């Protein structure tokens, strides 16, 4: 017997008592079909069951109905950006554990979810489940071994990048749409949401016809990520209540209509095929909504790319025919939505699916290294058991240099610590600077058949990125903390100048999330013991931090090398070989420069100069060595100040005898990071 508290933040409370016997659970059996739906950049107020009460015009009847007949997760957290959340979901690890926390993987970046970790699809395959992935991958494409069909999915239909044109399926100058590993050229003009929906239904029917007993589908929509594109037919219903003065919001509303219709069509297919009573639907966003692209998180503070609740408190729920029957058998009252306040993190989906649903053992032997950070939330969700989780790491990024204080966020019990910078993007972007509370983000885009309406600076999206942004259709202006000295945000006041620089340069905040879910009251000064305890815990976690490797876009990934198609560029070219990616060089750098016998700009003598590591590298200066014909000829330390950040420059004297007149000399330049020597970009460097 378990009591689930149905308590929302706006004063409504009810209690539901669920009684579940072991015999009833055994009779119901385990779900045999799992549909995991990920909606990109889905804001807290972008689903009807959250947003309607706060002035949002978005209507999501399918989401509302399925979640209302299941369990809504109201203490559920994701990360603030796409790739970190997706790699955490698929692997069951905190992104900081596997070097995936810092930023978004886009095509041509040599980063990827480590192949040392299993995905949930890998595990399910071993137990006879048929698996498929659709839509956005965004977990790396360096080599074929990083891509879905080599990471546990029997079938893939989608794209590798963080975003795509919804109609022509190009990223820049390259096509990015695959059916398994084959490029798809025939769907130019087909809307992406519709394409993945149709393909999943086709696959599901084929699997049933083939006698498949267990299926796992990972349906990762591109929507609601930019670009703002949607067929005009989806601008209907509540979208028409959004004034044309807010075109971004109206377009986003249409994109969400398409997602809601997709969910209806897909779940109708499970019903028509006789699978519904054995199906569980798992639903999540990857991060908070992006007001600049029409999303909204009100009344929560913040947005995508921040660690405020609007960036990391995720929309999530569990439903489906199996869940509905299980909850009814456990005594669920008719038409009574169940709200779970059990603490849950996105990394928990892996053990929830693998152990909780499929009944498989989890551990390093089966799941790879490092060990899982996630814990199964299955019993907490469907039986009302206590959460097995007491804390969640929400962000951990060390300093980016230039005075940047790093980005850290930790939830322990009811307390939430934010330390350093609360937003991923650095100063100089739309998120920071004197116009942080800009009423309009100043975007401009002409309607072109993909984007239904003109967007001008005067009609671009209202926002207050680290404050609170009501849905624009609600008629209220964004607002910021009173301490920022900008209470009068009106259409006649285009910017809100913050009187201090505490936010972008770092600080420390402590919130009681249970009492203050809107993060309006900083408790750091009045709860010193709690602050000290959480800071100590953060330091303990930081000791196991794996920094994300950073490197520039690899020119070898250019789609012009692959017939105009974005394609894995490292390792064997045959996708069936699933070539593992090479080790990623963690040392970014500028190409070394040689000065021989006083050639400008380095003065007299002979030397090699340059810089190594990224601007945000926080470790000690790296050792540098120079080799000629395989022999080390000079060593030094990268301890010369760089103009933009840190002690990362080097200037190493060289024997001028290395450079005989009229002969070409080439030198290899390397830096040592964590015990390994890595070549610097542009090495070897040669005389003319």
Structure description:
The protein has 688 residues and is of the alpha+beta class. 19% of the residues lie in helices and 20% in strands. The chain has 14 helices and 29 strands. The strands form seven sheets. A ten-stranded mixed sheet has the order 11-10-7-6-12-3-13-14-4-15, sandwiched between helices. A hairpin with a 5-residue loop joins strand 1 and strand 2 (13-18). Helix 6 packs parallel to helix 7 (247-272). The termini are far apart.
Brief characterization of the structure:
By secondary structure, the chain is α+β, with helices and mostly antiparallel strands. The chain is built from 14 helices and 29 strands. The strands form 7 sheets. A 10-stranded mixed beta sheet has the order 11-10-7-6-12-3-13-14-4-15, sandwiched between helices. Strands 23, 24, 27, 28 and 29 form a 5-stranded antiparallel beta sheet that branches. A 4-stranded antiparallel beta sheet has the order 17-18-19-20.
**What does the main sheet amount to?**
10 strands, mixed
Bin the strand percentage. 15-25%
Number of helices: 14
List low-pLDDT spans. 1-27, 426-436, 483-502, 598-603
The average pLDDT is: 86
Q: End-to-end span in angstroms?
A: 80 Å
Which overall shape is indicated by the principal axes computed on the Cα atoms?
A: globular
| Radius of gyration using CA atoms only | 26 Å
Q: Percentage of helical residues?
A: 10-25%
Helix/strand class: alpha+beta
Main sheet strand line-up: 11-10-7-6-12-3-13-14-4-15
Number of strands: 29
